[in-house]
Amino acid sequence: MTTPSALTIGRVAQSAGVAIDTIRFYEREGLLPEPRRRPSGYREYDMGTVARLRFIRRAKELGFTLEEIRELLALSADRHGGVEGVRERAAARLRAIEERIAELQRVRDGLSELVEACPGHGDPEDCPILKALVEPRA
User: Fold this and answer.
1) Distance between CA atoms of 44 and 9, rounded to whole angstroms?
2) Residue 98 and residue 92: Cα distance in Å, rounded?
3) Which Pfam families would you find in this protein's record (predicted)?
4) 47-61 and 66-77 are packed helices; what angle lies between their axes, rounded to 10 degrees?
5) How far is Cα of residue 50 from the mean position of the Cα atoms in its chain?
6) Which residue has the higher pLDDT, 41 or 50?
7) What is the β-pairing status of strands 43-44 and 36-37?
């Protein structure tokens, strides 16, 4: 017998803004609890699953890995010390993003210099972009 708040996998996917395969993947990865099954074998979910999927999706959008999301989910259930741990993980993610941005800015600046130096015509052996890709780094 289904409960009045029971949702199908399709309804959960639609409500959370994810694909059905994503739900099954997160179940296999242990990010979602094993759903109840109807006598027919169909999965049966509740709105808590939708909230958890939204949490996972938003954490991924912020750059958290699945392992980090698993930790955040565990910390979110810790009513005593969880917030401190969540803040620490978010601060670590922020530092990693800032480091990545700095690296991308260095790459952008280097590529910009190469594009400026390349006349866009002539022999490939004289192309500063191709030379930079072949020569060892200084």
Assistant:
1) 7
2) 10
3) MerR_1
4) 130
5) 17
6) 50
7) antiparallel
* Mean pLDDT for the chain overall: 88
pLDDT at 4: 56
DSSP 8-state assignment for residue 44: E
* C-alpha torsion sign, points 70, 72, 75, 81: positive
The pLDDT confidence band at residue 11, using thresholds 50, 70 and 90, is very high
Residue 97 neighbours by CB distance under 10 Å: 12
Place of tokens 């991924």: 60
**What single letter denotes the amino acid at residue 4?**
P
Q: What is Dmax (Cα atoms) for the chain?
A: 76
Q: Which pLDDT tens digit goes with each residue over 101-126?
A: 999 999 999 999 999 988 888 888 88
Rounded to whole angstroms, how far apart are CA atoms 54 and 57? 5
- Residue 57 pLDDT exceeds 60: yes
Is the pTM higher than 0.85? The answer reads no
- Contact yes or no for 8/42 (Cβ under 8 A): yes
Tell me which H or E stretch contains 37: strand 36-37
